[in-house]
Amino acid sequence: MVQSLLRERPQIRVSRGEQTRDRIMDVAEASVLAKGFAATSIDEILFEAGITKSGFFYHFRDKNDLALALIERFRDRDLGIFDDLFRRADELSDDPLHAFLVGLKLLAEAMADMQAERPGCLVATFVYQDQQFDARVRAILTEVTEVWRAQFRARIEAIALVHPPRVEVDLEALADMLLTIVDGSIVIAKALGRPRLLEDQILAYRTFVRTVFLGA
Question: What is the pTM of this model?
Answer without folding.
Answer: 0.82
